[in-house]
Amino acid sequence: MIAERLRKRLIALSSATAAVALIALAAPQSASADTMRTFNVALSCSSGLPYGLSVDNGSGWYYPSGSSYASGNTKYFTVSIPASASALAINTGFCDNETQTPYWEGYRYSIVPGTSTISANGNCQDMYVYPGPFVRYCSLTALTYS
Q1: Residue 16: per-residue pLDDT
Q2: Is residue 81 classed as helix, strand or coil in its secondary structure?
Q3: Domains along the chain?
Q4: How distant, in Å, are the alpha carbons of 19, 54, 74 from that of 120?
Q5: Hey, which of 48, 52, 98, 111 has its CA 20 to 30 A from 35?
Q6: Dihedral angle computed from the Cα positions of residues 44, 45, 51 and 56, in that order, rounded to the nearest 10 degrees
Q7: What is the dihedral of CA 12, 17, 22, 23, to 10 degrees?
Q8: Among residues of the chain, what percentage have pLDDT more than 70?
Q9: pLDDT at position 56, please?
Q10: What number of other Cβ atoms are within 10 A of residue 128's Cβ?
Q11: pLDDT at 30 over 50
């Protein structure tokens, strides 16, 4: 009787182990982390210093990891973006002396996917759109790869 119980438990344990192994093999593997590239931008606002840099590569806005420093009315950001990105848009949290606004009406730029560093100059300004709210326009110029 004890031998029969042990045999049944062993069969149940073996079946459970086999099921877990099959599920693990059949489950899709998660995508590996995307390689990153450096994005350098000298960002200014029409009315003062910008605070914060958010980026959209086509899958939504996020605040990329990196560093920044200010010099005069320009803030220099060095951040990491996915190397697979083929589009780029920027925004700032707010600019000195401008209305904080959630309405972004900036520009999107096509970029070449790859691991080279991207450098650009950026400018953000809030503008009143009659009869509605203020909107923020952020643009990039002098986009270069190195």
Answers
A1: 46
A2: strand
A3: 36-145 (2.60.40)
A4: 53, 15, 13
A5: 52
A6: -80
A7: 100
A8: 75
A9: 96
A10: 10
A11: no
Q: Is the pLDDT of residue 89 over 50?
A: yes
**pTM confidence score:** 0.74
User: What pLDDT score does 138 carry?
Assistant: 93
Radius of gyration of the chain (CA): 25
Q: What are phi and psi of 134, to 5 degrees?
A: -75, 145
| 28 upstream amide cis, omega within 30 of 0 | no
Beta carbons of 86 and 110 less than 8 angstroms apart: yes
Q: Which two tokens stand for residue 141?
A: 């110029």
Assign 3-class secondary structure to 92-124: CCEECCCCCCCCECCCCEECCCCCCCEEEEEEE
- Return the pLDDT at 27: 40
Which two tokens mark 146?
Answer: 């190195």
Mean pLDDT of all residues in 37-57: 94
- Tokens for 89, please give them: 């848009």
Q: Can you tell me the distance from the alpha carbon of 69 to that of 94, in angstroms, rounded to the nearest whole number?
A: 16
User: 22 or 81, which is more confident?
Assistant: 81
Which tokens in the block code for residue 37?
A: 């590239």
